[in-house]
Fold this protein.
Amino acid sequence: MMRNLVVCVSVSHGNTKKIASAMADVLGAPVVEPEEVDVATLGGYDLVGFGSGIFAMAFHPRLQTFVASLPTAKRGKAFLFATSGGPELPVWPYTRPMVARLETKGFEVVGTFRCRGLDTWLPLRLIGGLNKGHPNDADLAAASSFAAGLRDDTRTPTTVDASLP
């Protein structure tokens, strides 16, 4: 039986926690915050998910600091997931730098998942936010399907961007 873990930072509206929970249910994994992870045990997991909301086109600073603090070691597979107000921009990617950081820490990154989430960053707060109702049932189903592919090892390294129309 695979040992899986989902590391999540969800601070604004619980968007990312919803996605993390949908994936964790499929993977039979606990969802923990970076500060709750025993770094010494990370090598014992077969699959570790790392996710947060996107802030200023980057993963949350707490997640970035956690990954940066990891000692380099041989590790298992990893995946990234994120919620954001908009899609990742080709000219300003936030996924690729985090994939590279995880790989330098010894993980084999086998996939990334992104979807829309309620975004109330100013000035969007003035109009009630962007992407109201996201993540929705379709986003959660896409997250579950992505996790099932990772669990069943039926997926080659892939990116699922449920934020695209």
